[in-house]
Amino acid sequence: MNPPLLRALHPLDAPPSPPGWNHAELADLLGEAPRTPAAVLVPVFDGAEPALLFTRRTEHLRHHAGQVAFPGGRIEAADAGAVEAALRESEEEIGLARDAVRPLGYLDCFETVSGFCVTPVVARVARGTPLRPHPGEVAEVFEVPLTFFLDPANLHTRRMDYRGRPREVYEFRHGGHVIWGVTAGILVNLLRRMGTP
């Protein structure tokens, strides 16, 4: 596993706490009301060239329809925490068996305009693990080499209006996919924690 990536993570026995690292950017929009806890799995295929696994959500979903995402969702009352929620959601969304996943640690929490506070759980996944995307939730599963994100030339920003307010969002483009919003924000946090400009 990539040593700088491992050093960038919060240890499993010390999960990060809210607020998200981007809290100040959203405080004017969402105020200080509590965010709904959520978790995503950031799956990393290990090997000579580590790669990150992504999904493209189906177009009819309530939140982030059609967007590129990491598997994940709301932390339910029955979940023991972010790791349990991320593993459960990954199993439901893409058929990723828990015994093929080795959680490694956390990135910083990230807040979303839809009112969630997401805890990213980074995990090693055995390459060749069979996946069964849920057709009602996931339109596509694909991977992107970690080296792509480590190149600063591949990180872009664009301005957009949200509820009448201008906002700057991060964006990556790879193989016909546009990775932006929550997912790009999580990746930017990973890169910053790895010391990549």
From TrEMBL:
Its cofactor is Mg(2+); Mn(2+). The keyword Nucleotidyltransferase does not apply. It comes from the Bacteria. GO terms for molecular function: coenzyme A diphosphatase activity; metal ion binding. SUPFAM superfamilies: Nudix. Pfam families: NUDIX. Residues 35-166 form the Nudix hydrolase domain. Keywords: Hydrolase, Magnesium, Manganese, Metal-binding. NCBIfam families: PRK10707.1. This is NTP pyrophosphohydrolase. It comes from Mizugakiibacter sediminis.
